[in-house]
Design a protein that fits this description.
The complex is a heterodimer.
Chain A: H1 2-35, H2 43-57, H3 59-90, H4 92-107, H5 114-121, H6 125-149, H7 153-161, H8 166-202, H9 209-218, H10 222-250, H11 252-257, H12 263-270, H13 276-283
Chain B: E1 2-9, E2 21-28, E3 33-37, H1 44-51, E4 59-64, E5 67-68, E6 76-79, H2 83-86, H3 93-98, H4 108-121, H5 137-150, E7 155-159, H6 167-184, E8 187-192, H7 195-201, E9 204-209, E10 213-219, H8 230-233, H9 235-250
Parallel strand pairs in B: 3-8, 3-9, 6-7, 7-8
Antiparallel strand pairs in B: 1-2, 1-4, 4-5, 9-10
Helix pairs in contact in B: 4-5, 7-9
Chain lengths: 284, 255
């Protein structure tokens, strides 16, 4: 009985999160059909344009190149950021020596380097990947560095006392212990990466979603422009959805250790305790 | 046999700085259960870190079975006081116990067998797939003990392993430890600040005075197997307890 009510409440809350978006879309749809506004074309036209363009005509020519450049840059940032972060986190000398440069590069707005990137790499993929790397590396690097510095000394002492070699200590203690911070940096960088993907494609580009949005605006295809914008929003949503799923999986131990897991996991842990109840029952 | 001769430890480069360990000499025989008793801040943990080879001594010598200790020896395992900080929360119970074994040259099967046996010895059979944070404090410390046992050490160093547990769990674990000590035939060097615990567990008790020098070295004549109720009710228990108590009270306290 009580369970039924709990489930009912959960279903209600689940549905509640769709109320505002649906109302907004429906409201805009109704308004735009009648408004006949140049800047805000009817939703039906935007939807039709969206379907025309992105199902699936320009997927290969614009969507895939955009995502590929973004993910390539992001991947480079994750690998280099984590590697350098570990290195600087473990060496005080390196950390002190590189800190001013890192702080400067981090503070530098990455789009400011687009002209230079074009000089260096031309207008192709490489310059866009470079810009994404330049913007997304620092949050990952700095978070990793902090995470590595925060590793429990005793966990490392424990491993040393058991003669666990240094590389194994790095991969089985330092990196997992720093992983919550690494993920925090990666999450920040993911958002930055999407922004830089779009910005870099709006300057001297021949394809990509950013290029498409700008081109549509220039040729007064406003509904196509909106279609591109909506696609960008959806990409952002999808990527962060995937990210959160991965993070939850990889960092399950972290949430568990902090007592943040929902009931079932901790409850199954409880059943692992010595069970005096069964003994008491048999005794009685 | 573990021999410690004229061990001295000063932190930092300044040889004039106050020593953490002034000068300590003692021996531990094979399969002996030795308790080192001292109030907090007397250099107990520093001593244990030196013995385990985690930090180098400033002078003096430590020998394990005749070999000088320069790094963590193969025949030694360490159980830390703070189980929550020495167990790895991203590994399962079995993962934690078998983690050091991977680098000891054991095959997967051997490591698994050693893990099973060790978890069995601390009554945690069947807990393999749980995570440390799903267990109570006493169970977590048992996992840490199992990890040390699975390593098959000849000597077990324990740094106040039961200090952060409640009294009931603690006496249960004391008996478990005595059982393990007998069954696995290990030497135990157990550091504690609890006089009752030291007298109850040990063959011999050393009192450490700040800054870490041996004040008193007494043999515990209590019969084995020991029992929480009858052993602690013996007049010899009370007498020893009294002697150690006044020795610790008389010892100058650090800082």
């Amino acid at each position: 009985m009580k369970d039924g009510r709990v489930i009912g409440r959960r279903a209600g809350l689940f549905l509640l999160q769709f109320v505002v978006p649906v109302a907004l879309v429906a409201g805009f749809g109704l308004w735009s059909e009648r408004a006949d506004d140049f800047f805000f074309p009817p939703l039906s036209r935007i939807a039709a344009d969206f379907a025309d363009t992105w199902l699936f005509e320009r997927v290969g020519t614009d969507l895939v190149p955009s995502l590929a450049r973004m993910l390539a840059g992001y991947a480079i940032s994750v690998v280099c950021g984590v590697a350098l972060g570990v290195l600087f986190g473990m060496s005080r000398i390196l950390r002190t020596a590189t800190d001013p440069v890192i702080q400067f590069l981090r503070a530098l707005p990455a789009p400011a380097m687009i002209p230079f990137a074009m000089l260096l790499f031309g207008t192709g993929d490489a310059s866009k990947v470079f810009i994404v790397v330049l913007g997304t590396m620092w949050p990952i690097l700095l978070n990793t560095l902090d995470g590595v510095r925060g590793v429990e000394e005793q966990q490392l002492d424990m491993a040393r006392s058991f003669r666990v070699p240094a590389t194994a200590r790095l991969f089985h203690i330092t990196l997992p212990a720093a992983s919550p911070r690494i993920f925090a940096g990666m999450r920040t960088s993911l958002g930055i990466g999407i922004i830089l993907m779009v910005v870099s494609e709006m300057v001297a580009s021949r394809n990509g979603i950013g290029y498409f949005v700008l081109q549509s605006q220039r040729s007064f295809e406003i509904s196509a422009m909106w279609g591109g914008v909506i696609l960008l929003g959806l990409i952002g949503l999808a990527l962060s959805w995937v990210f959160v799923r991965v993070e939850n999986r990889v960092l399950r131990w972290h949430r568990g250790a902090r007592g943040l897991l929902p009931e079932p996991a901790t409850a199954s842990g409880r059943t692992g305790l010595p069970r005096p109840t069964t003994q008491e029952v048999t005794r009685a | 046999m573990l021999e410690v001769s004229r061990l001295r430890k000063v932190y930092g480069a300044d040889p004039q700085a106050a020593p953490a360990i002034e000068e300590v000499s003692f021996e531990v025989a094979d399969r002996e259960f030795l308790c080192i008793l001292g109030s907090s801040g007397c250099g107990k943990s520093t001593l244990l870190k030196c013995l385990s080879g985690l930090i180098p001594a400033s002078s003096g010598e430590i020998r394990l079975n005749g070999e000088p200790v320069t790094g963590p020896p193969e025949d030694m395992a360490f159980v830390f006081q703070d189980y929550s900080r020495s167990l790895l929360p991203w590994m399962t119970v079995a993962g934690n116990v078998s983690f050091p074994l991977r680098y000891k040259g054991l095959s997967k099967r051997e490591a698994q067998a050693a893990t099973d046996e060790a978890l069995d010895a601390v009554s945690l059979a069947g807990m393999h797939k749980r995570f440390p944070w799903q267990l109570s404090g006493g169970m977590q410390q048992r996992v840490a003990i199992a990890r040390a046992l699975a390593y098959r050490p000849k000597i077990l160093l324990m740094d106040e392993p039961f200090a952060s547990l409640d009294a009931q769990t603690r006496s249960g674990l004391e008996d478990l430890l005595l059982d393990i000590w007998r069954r696995f035939e290990v030497t135990v060097l157990f550091i504690t600040h609890d006089i009752d615990e030291a007298v109850y567990l040990a063959d011999r008790v050393l009192v450490l005075e700040a800054p870490a020098k041996v004040g008193l070295d007494v043999t515990v004549p209590l019969p084995r197997p020991r029992d929480q109720l009858t052993t602690k009710a013996l007049p010899e228990f009370a007498e020893l307890r009294g002697r150690l108590f006044s020795a610790i009270q008389g010892a100058p306290v650090a800082r």
